[in-house]
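Q: Give me a protein?
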Amino acid sequence: MSPRLRPMLAATAAALLLAGCTSSDGGSDGDQADPSAASTAGADVAEELRSSAAPDAEPQPVETALPVIATRATSDGDNLLEIDLNTVSVSGDVMTVVFTARNVGDGRWQIHQYFDDGLLSAPLDDEGTRGEDAPLKNGATTDGVSVIDTTNGTVHRAAYDVAGNCACSVNLTVRNVEPENSLVLTTSFAAPPEDVESVTVQIPGAGAFADVPVNR
C-alpha cells in the first residue's frame, strides 16, 4: 500500500447516495447496497408479467443475464481471470460502470487490492480539508477503474463522499472468488455532459475498453 494520500473532493448528492455499493456475491457489508439487484431485476420483471397475465397466456422469456460489451483474459499471480465489461449507464448526475470478474483458474482468488488505485483516503471537514485527527482508510475497492471522456478530453475518477467512502465496490480484502465463479462489481463517477455518447473504460488488469456506449 502506497503511503500517498488521496486528494478528496466533495461528491455530488447522487454520488453520496451511491457510496458504499457492493459486489453481488450473495453477501453484504452493514447497510451497504447490494448490486446483485442488477442481475435479478429481469427475474423480478418476469414474475410481475406472469402474475398479471391472463390465465391462458403463454410465458414470455425475460433476459436476466447482464449484457457483455467485451471480455478480457488476465491474471493475478497464478490466478487466471476473465473480466467482462457489462454496462456504462448514466442516471441523473451519476455514471456507473458495471463489470464482472470471473475466476477461470484452479484455485481460490482473493481480490484484495487488484482493482484499487493504491491511494489512501481520509474524510474531510466542513471546509473541505482533512482534520488533524481524521483516520486514513486503506483501499480494497474498485476505485482504480476510470472513465475517459474522449469527446472533451476528461478523465473521470471514482466518486468519493466527504466521509472518505468510495461510490464503488468496497471491502474486497475479504472477497474470495472460487474457481468457475464470478463477482459483479461497480464503480460510480460524475456523469459526463449529455452530448457524450461513448467513452473509454479502463479497468486494472484488463486494460482499456474503447468506444463503449453510454446508456442514458
Observations:
- Residues 37-52 form the longest helix (16 residues).
- Residues 1-42 have pLDDT under 50 and may be disordered.
- DSSP finds two helices and ten strands in the chain.
- The first strand starts at residue 70 and ends at 76.
